[in-house]
Amino acid sequence: MGFWSSLQPGSAGGWCAAVTLTFPGLLRCQDLALLLLRLVVAIVFGASGYFHLKDPAGRAKSIELSPAATVALGLMEVLASVGLVTGIFIQIGALVLLLLGLGAIGKKVFRWKTGFWGEKGYGWHYDLMLLAMNLVILSTAGGKLVVRL
User: Fold this and answer.
1) What predicted TM-score, i.e. pTM, was given to this entire model?
2) What does pLDDT average to over the chain?
3) Measuring CA to CA, which of 20, 89, 93, 145 is 20 to 30 A from 139?
């Protein structure tokens, strides 16, 4: 009896592991929880993008990019955040933010040699958490609470 034998057919045609739920009633709140997750991620990245666009020269120095690249980064963050809030192109928005997060982690680890916790809390633990949040949004399509066009 191995891992594969513990899987059972899922309702969506795939296979899933049997799970014992401690609070099965909370499954009703799944879409609300995904909406709140999307809003938190959108606030973080949207604010970052806003500040990139507000002062591209200053932000460019702090993140070691050109001002033009900083403006492009800010636009991507803001547009992806709008997608997360509205649910329009939500998976594309989450994928863009996930890739930006990978870039941020890569820069912190390989270029700046920042540790996981970093000095004064400026490590890449926060970026990794946001990356995981975007992965959840990407893989679940953010739930059903979206703006209908």
Assistant:
1) 0.85
2) 90
3) 20
